[in-house]
């Protein structure tokens, strides 16, 4: 049946609201269908883009041209400072070993590698196939019976060479953290919470090296050669950095790095295969992860690529680098390593990426000078001073400084006897208010020798960590002077019991307290101390607490800026003191503007409204007195007291 034009136009007009969405959906699904075809490919389209934009470079061999059975050679330093060749043969190509990056498996028939296997410190050793640069030795197997390794393609590495130096970016290594804001402040300063802040998770605590799946092909890693460090200090450093320490000391053939930039006469001319060290500690003590240079480029040969894998994977970085001297190779069934020492500072590591680390010889970053002095308990042990420098890093600088102090403590006395450890830190900081020096004195008693784990958890470490990782502003450490003095024996007493002599306690009275103090050996002695009851405490039940100075944390206001934060952290009571505290039922507030005490409940609620995200921290009202003593006081004791109103004056 024929349809009139008018009827057709009317029908179209009626169906337009229905047809329009259908047409849109058809277009949308058609686009998805075409996109799916483009992604899947039908064999006639162009290849998908992959990393490696320099695959047309005549001096490199692209990954797609590398086939099983191809032979080549690699360059690395086996001893001294001159690279040497070793032969390799391609086993196969592993596609997408990591996202967007292939890996080339190879085997070496060189007798040296047949004996040692793939060696830690060879990371970055350039591999040439058909006399063209193919990539860097970067991966291996632990406990391998054959010298089988993995190569990072140079195409991926060269992309890192184009990344700029980013001094305005300050990377933070991934780590665990505790509660934040006022809750964390209460935990740490007011001791209102008891939750322990979790320690930073280092790469060893993640399955496999650097978080890679365990049991397979994994980054070789950069062995950290250490010099002038005791075994316990080196282990602390290893735990803090996540790097494997190689205890080997210095070399008669190469002076240890001073941490200073190389002079014109000691500037190193870099070539592929050279040994390179990332310097964490330099001077009288040393710590430097070591690897190999893969590629040298740039208009002035100022650009280097090394490792073939990340050190931490932090991205923008600013660690000093030095040319390295290889003393020997330490063969091991698990993983052989190069024993090396850094020579002179030659530049800066500016990028830490998956395919490689990027180094620049025309950029120099200063290190932080650290002077450490140590005095042992024997008179014959004269005071010794060590001059070192540590890398400037928000995450690593505090544990690097602590490592040097632990080394000094162990040198001063690791005897398993009764000792007292006195430490002093002078930390020069730069904040927005200008330079300021924090002086921290601590005195700690150890009944059976110094417990290094406790010694490492010093207030100095806490303050340096807080200064470099604070919510207010960027701060920097300019220098550190620290000292450790160890004494045999100790004038130390423990609070055994307390009791009051007052028959009736009234508001405003001077409370007389008998304190039984017990030394490690010998009879208990009794000392009388006095603390005044607040004049307005009548009718209240208060808690009297006596404790040794190092056991009590001063109340402190919430910090409003970095300098407030540093002042609060630096505040402490001397170890040779008794702190008498009277806690009252009421609460006060720790705010950004100071400590507010003796507040009525209505005012307390007004000053800490529930609708604000900047809540003040509540704390118990307290009256406190510091009583100096001749001995170090340990422990604490408390009792409850009913306070009567003051007598009326007739």
Q: What is the end-to-end distance?
A: 122 Å
What percentage of the residues does DSSP assign to strands (E)?
35-45%
How many runs of DSSP E, i.e. beta strands? 31
Number of helices: 10
Strand order of the largest sheet: 1-2-3-7-6-5
Give me the secondary-structure category.
alpha+beta
- Helical residues, percent: 10-25%
Radius of gyration: 33 Å
Taken from the alpha-carbon principal axes, the silhouette is elongated
Parts with pLDDT < 50 across at least 5 consecutive residues: 1-15, 17-52, 173-214, 250-256, 599-619
Mean pLDDT: 79
The major sheet is characterized as:
6 strands, antiparallel, barrel
Domain Peptidase S55: 1-173
Organism: Enhygromyxa salina
Region (Disordered): 251-270
Pfam families: Peptidase_S55 (PF05580)
Brief rundown of the structure:
This protein is α+β, with helices and mostly antiparallel strands and 650 residues long.
Write up this protein.
The N terminus is likely disordered. The chain is 18% helix and 38% strand. Among the domains are: 121 residues, no CATH class; 151 residues, no CATH class. It has ten helices and 31 strands. The chain starts with a helix and ends in an 8-residue tail after the last strand. The longest helix is centred in the N-terminal third of the chain and has 36 residues. Strand 27 and strand 28 form a beta hairpin. It has 650 residues and is α+β, with helices and mostly antiparallel strands. A six-stranded antiparallel beta barrel has the order 1-2-3-7-6-5. The protein has a six-stranded antiparallel beta barrel with strand order 11-13-14-17-16-15. The protein is elongated, with a radius of gyration of 33 Å.
